[in-house]
Design brief:
The structure is a homotetramer of 180-residue chains.
Chain A: E1 3-9, H1 17-27, E2 33-37, H2 55-65, E3 69-73, H3 83-93, E4 104-111, H4 117-130, E5 133-134, E6 140-143, H5 158-179
Parallel strand pairs in A: 1-2, 1-3, 3-4, 4-5, 4-6
């Protein structure tokens, strides 16, 4: 059985180190895992007045249906998470049949001095309501401005790399635990 | 001298009780204050790759330039703030000459059981980085589902109304204090 | 197999509604669970200079060793948790062989308007570091000043009572899940 | 007029880097400021059942009465603040005539990787209820394990030192602003 993971980067720019963390994860997946990165750039802000779900939302929700777990990479903007990532989760939370509840989540992020930690703690509170199950450890806090990434946002730091690898292994174990 | 306030509702739907709180504030402004509600619905997600500022962002930032203070109304989605409001602040935070720093902020919100309190405490952390100056008191936590608003999102509860009025007076005093 | 739970009340006063929540839990335990309330009143503030562990700390840590899970009841003081409860956890976190890691936690609390929710979200961040596994649901937020408790701190509100019962069942399920 | 500051260290051990930060502040006070460090080690946990205030609490509250502002240094234990510091504030919050309201606060801290930032953001939420007025900037996050302090807890890092000096100047300005 292959475990399916949905990865979401909270940053929309091409050379984002957060998207780079996900690329690194993709290349370093433990055996038996499959990772799909979903694009959230075209998902509009949630608005209860919309009579029909926008196409980007439908595609996003469809991708989530068969996932076993999530991998979120969030930048930190102004001491909190990226709105694009939270907005995608807000859309997902409105489904009658939950596409989130009870699923395992691995968190990571790249940002300035605190490596997105402030953003991740805010996200963790969001996950309580969504009844998602974030790993406690390892935490991945990558400094985006300390030579940790190249100009294209590729991870070049091996300590952070090992950290991401350990996160993926822990995610796999958590999914298997939750499936029992 | 008239004190200029920019009001922003984090909710985009027409009958939003949060937008209703701002309408109520507009009708109950203390003397010497002027309130302008800015629309953030057309502001796209922040993306550092964008070569030019979108028109909606330019208009938003222009409106902020001459303001003396802010009035934010936030719904609570999944135990945190509305992405649309945070995203507008993220754009504003990128200006070389700050349009935010040192300005007074009044917070209010309407939501389920906790009246948006979880959203507001997350927002307060964002305001630390932006060097905005939120009032500590009064806090306005309106239950959106307890007959506090009519079907169009108009505030009908006089206790919350008095609370909003007290908030506006405190905002006026804070602005005058910060200008000394 | 009987599942052993350690219950801790963050409030030290005799008629505390938080201690009352624990008494209610004690009387309404699901089959196969055993609950022991530990007293933290005599545990001094953590201080790395102390050459020997105080007797109250030794007794506390001994009680924790064989537990399968935790039930915490926290009042809310000044928008955060009770220092006595956090201090006990700080002591426990210093053990070379963890008495906490990986164990299930059920959170509840009684306080003013927000029913200790602000305290509980702060506690949840503490649990991340301790690698404890708090339930997401149900959340138990009891208003301590709305006729929910009698003068001795006994729970008299059946809705909150049902909520506590559901919490205990969820705790039992979580422990069994984590043991697999 | 001399501005009076009360300094409190959340750590009780003799060689604490947090107490070291306060000693550094004491030696580098801007002109016109006077700093008194209060000892909170003997303040017992708050307990509403106590019929009389303990002597240590009375002395603590007396010291606070004539202060113009506060300087808090907090370690980070398990991703949050030191219980001893919060407990002292909890006692102070119970006074009929507030000894806290409206006063300026400067925050700093020494801890592991994140330099006490997680502790400080929790403290900031406490300050909202107490109606204290924390500075937004500068934030002082000292790594306690990176050669920043000597074995006695004395600050040896000049960057952090400059940061503390800037904090004291900002505190002075904030007090003068709030007094206008």
């Amino acid at each position: 059985m292959t475990l399916r993971i949905i990865a979401i980067s909270g940053s929309l720019r091409a050379a984002s180190p957060n998207t780079g963390l996900i690329r690194f994860a993709h290349k370093n997946l433990p055996e038996g895992m499959e990772l799909t990165t979903v694009n959230i750039a075209d998902i509009p802000f949630y608005n209860a007045d919309l009579k029909e779900k926008p196409a980007a939302v439908i595609a996003f929700l469809e991708a989530l249906k068969s996932t076993d777990g999530f991998l979120f990479a969030t930048p930190e903007y102004n001491y909190s998470y990226a709105p694009a990532l939270k907005n995608a989760l807000d859309w997902a939370s409105r489904e009658t049949v939950s596409v989130l509840q009870g699923k395992a989540v691995a968190l990571m992020g790249a940002a300035g001095g605190m490596g997105s930690s402030r953003a991740q703690y805010h996200l963790r509170q969001v996950l309580v309501y969504l009844d998602l199950r974030p790993l406690n450890r390892p935490e991945v806090f990558a400094n985006a401005y300390a030579g940790t990434f190249d100009i294209d946002g590729n991870l070049t730091d091996s300590t952070i790399g090992d950290n991401v690898k350990a996160l993926l292994i822990a995610l796999k174990e958590s999914i298997l635990q939750l499936k029992k």
